[in-house]
Design goal:
With 564 residues, the protein is of the alpha/beta class. It is 59% helix and 9% strand. It folds into two domains: 218 residues, no CATH class; 305 residues, Alkaline Phosphatase, subunit A (3-Layer(aba) Sandwich), CATH 3.40.720.10. The protein starts with 7 loop residues before the first helix and ends with a helix.
Length: 564
């Protein structure tokens, strides 16, 4: 009796196709995790050129002696506006100053990058703080560095991210873990530290990080009773904090900036481009503020220039933002001087970048110019990436064609082989996406809260789809359409190669535009998310799904012989 796998050449081809799937899976995993690692450890390739940029000379009399920045992590702008109309504790805080709404966060819209942008006036790809995995100190110029040079004492209470990125500059730092009413502990400590330093005759720059709202947003989601109750509670504490400063006479000589870093989408996630996630506000409490709600077109890069204008400081050297004139009572000359200085500062940074990437500048606004420089940086190596992607696509197409040809030879009917292969591939895809949706449907960067949890979702979805495919291919051997062990194995492999070809189309497209590692400028993060999803799905398919599908299909095929 002959081998159940048919001619020797068929067996060798089946083994090679299977080994190639394993290889593609391994390479996909290496590429995906390498891209993530390059994001975690991102370094600006033009940092040295940018660090050579000098601050534009500008100075005005300060409109405040102390600077206090209170970061309300995870407070959605829409929730603030909703509760401001309904809750006295929220209204009491907001009524103290000028509330600027209509702003936008940077992307990724997560804690570390947004804080670094507020302090530096630069986007994440410039200041290097690209994710919450950042573990070095921020090297670009920032408000803390400026304040230190001007003799301020630098204080941080409650915020672990600030402690990490500018901890080398701080005179006192008290990072605090989430939970156990972190807001109450942080504000009490902030009050004590500020009063002590002010009593010693020092000028203070105090940063206060409040995490209670963010913690509840992740657990319960926004627009929930628990989330709103936490906001109300935090604002009652904040109002008491401000009242205490007022009694000590500190409030009238301070600029207090209350702001958020991001909002939430329904479900309690953030990080991407969604409007509700990127909605950003800034409350300025100062004698220079015009009380009320002011809508303006601004973003987080404008925070540092605005604070510099009020404090009479120079702008951070790599700032691309502009000072906001809305809601602030400053004389026309100061505003004009800072608007002019902000443009000069941004152009200096952009010229350093343009020289590095070979771009030319026209007379657009600095933020528009940055997009032009970024586009040129992407185009520099695009031709090489396109050629590489095309080569990979042709190789994968050839392998998929070989697997289909083998199945055709074993099946004896070209049309039947094509229909069976496409049907099996479609079954895999439907099974994968159905289970993936059942487990939560993460489709954007904002949908991922836990990286390991997300990998678990993709892994489980691949295994489920592979079980379905393997079972369907094996059960075929119980019908009149049976074709034997070799045909069963070939059906599984040809279907998986079709799935592989489809899965890698998007990564190849992404690679052709951006490359496979995170470089300046950052890619479109939603496309980057799909890039990672496609690659890690293929990794699990090759390393786990293919062996599982083959084992199940051949096991059922063997049972069918016993049954028959």
């Amino acid at each position: 009796m002959g081998s159940p796998f048919g001619p020797f050449a068929h067996r060798i081809t089946l083994v090679l196709l299977f080994l190639l799937l394993l290889t593609i899976g391994y390479l996909s995993q290496s590429t995906a995790m390498g891209a993530v690692q390059s994001w975690r450890e991102y370094r600006n390739p033009y940092l040295e050129e940018l660090k050579s940029v000098r601050r534009v000379e500008i100075s005005h009399d300060p409109l405040a002696k102390h600077l206090v920045m209170v970061l309300l992590d995870g407070l959605s702008e829409s929730s603030l506006l909703y509760l401001m109309e309904r809750e006295e504790s929220v209204r009491a805080v907001v009524s103290r100053g000028a509330l600027l709404v209509g702003g936008k966060t940077v992307v990724p819209s997560v804690s570390y990058p947004t804080r670094a942008t507020m302090l530096s006036g630069a986007p994440p790809e410039v200041h290097e703080v690209s994710s919450n995995w950042f573990s070095r100190r921020m090297e670009v110029d920032n408000l803390f560095a400026i304040a230190k040079e001007r003799g301020y004492v630098l204080l941080n209470v409650g915020d672990g991210s600030i402690h990490k990125i500018v901890g080398h500059l701080l005179d006192e730092s008290y990072p605090m873990e989430d939970g156990a009413s972190q807001a109450a502990v942080a504000l009490q400590k902030a009050e004590e530290v500020l009063k002590r330093r002010a009593a010693a005759g020092e000028r203070a720059f105090l940063w206060v990080g409040i995490t209670d709202i963010d913690t509840m947003g992740h657990k319960a989601g926004p627009y929930t009773e628990e989330y709103n109750a936490t906001i109300i509670y935090v604002f009652s504490l904040l109002n008491s904090f401000l009242s205490s400063l007022e009694r000590e006479g500190l409030l009238k000589e301070s600029l207090v900036v209350v702001l958020n870093d991001h909002g939430f989408k329904r479900g309690g996630h953030h990080g991407g481009y969604e409007e509700e996630v990127r909605a950003f506000f800034m409350l300025l409490i100062s004698p220079a503020a015009v009380p009320g709600v002011h809508r303006s077109n601004f973003d987080q890069m404008d925070v540092a220039p605005t604070i510099s204008m009020i404090m009479g400081w120079p702008l951070p050297a790599n700032s691309l933002g502009s000072p906001i004139g809305t809601g602030i009572r400053v004389d026309a000359r100061r505003l004009s001087d800072y608007l002019s200085a902000s443009r000069q500062q941004a152009i200096s940074t952009l010229m350093a970048l343009a020289d590095s990437v070979g771009a030319s500048l026209n007379d657009e606004s600095p933020k528009e110019l940055y997009l032009q420089v970024s586009a040129e940086a992407v185009r520099r190596e695009a031709l090489t990436r396109y050629a590489f992607s095309l080569l990979i696509f042709l190789v994968l197409s050839a392998i998929a064609a070989i697997s289909l040809l083998l199945f055709y030879m074993l099946e004896g009917s070209g049309r039947r082989a094509v229909l069976l292969t496409l049907g099996a591939a479609l079954l895999y895809e439907l099974s994968f996406w159905a289970f993936y949706s059942f487990l939560g449907r993460p489709f954007t960067l904002s949908d991922v809260y836990s990286f390991s949890g997300y990998l678990g979702i993709v892994r489980a979805s691949v295994l489920f789809a592979s079980i379905v495919l393997g079972a369907a291919a094996g059960v075929r051997e119980l019908t009149q359409s049976r074709g034997g062990f070799a045909s069963t194995a070939a059906l599984v492999l040809s279907a998986l190669w079709v799935v592989t070809l489809l899965s890698l189309l998007q990564p190849l497209y992404f690679n052709a535009i951006y490359g496979v590692t995170i470089t300046m400028p950052f890619p479109n993060w939603d496309q980057g998310f799909v890039f990672f999803l496609s690659l890690i799905r293929e990794a699990f398919l090759g390393l786990l799904g293919a062996p599982l599908a083959m084992a199940i299909a051949l096991f059922i095929a063997a049972l069918s012989r016993i049954i028959r």
